[in-house]
Amino acid sequence: MAEVDRDTTEAILEERLAELRRTRTAMRRESEGGTSGEVAHLDNHPADEGTETHERELEVTTGIFLDEEERRIDEARRALAAGTYGTCTACGAQIPSARLAAVPEAVRCLDCQRHFEGLHSQHHSLRTES
Ligand SMILES: [Zn+2]
Predict the structure, then answer these.
(1) Which residues neighbour ligand 1 (ion) by CB within 5 Å?
(2) Most exposed residue of 112, 116, 121, 125, measured as fewest CB within 10 angstroms of its CB?
(3) pTM attached to this predicted model
(4) Which of 69, 57, 55 has the alpha carbon at shortest distance from 24?
(5) How many angstroms separate the alpha carbon of residue 74 from the centre of ligand 1?
(6) Domains and CATH numbers, the chain
């Protein structure tokens, strides 16, 4: 098994998680300010409503992305704690260290990840319909 610096990896994952939560908090604060601000209602043209709806949809999509990212990081941290980090959870193969350096929250090798995302995107196909 390739050497994985557990402390360093854990610190990287913690940092990514903290960043994720900052993004989420900033997003929430922004959307709250946008809907309750009285100034926004002064020029409430019908055209603006469409833009607002679009922005809200974008926010929901970003929220889903953030949730998934958080779940992946959580999974990687569990693997790290269990000592299985660096090993593909699907096929048991060693995940190349270059991949782990680029994607520290990776818990699958590239082949399994592609397969997993393929199944996953079918699940969420409703989301891309417009
Ligand atoms: Zn695999």
Answers:
(1) 88, 90-91, 93, 109, 112
(2) 125
(3) 0.68
(4) 69
(5) 19
(6) 6-27+49-125 (1.20.120.910)
Å from CA of 116 to ligand 1 middle: 10
28 C-beta neighbours (distance < 10 Å), count: 12
Q: List b or e across 40-57, with b for residues whose CB sees 16 or more CB atoms inside 10 angstroms.
A: eeeeeeeeeeeeeeeeee
Distance CA 120, CA 112 (A): 12
* 64-101 pLDDT tens trace: 889 989 999 999 999 999 999 999 999 999 999 999 99
Which tens digits make up the pLDDT trace of 29-39? 887 765 544 44
Q: Measure Cα distances from 19 to 13, 14, 70, 76, 116 in Å.
A: 10, 9, 10, 16, 25
CA distance 59 to 34: 12
State the Cα–Cα distance between residues 114 and 90, nearest whole angstrom: 12
The token duo for 19 is: 């960043």
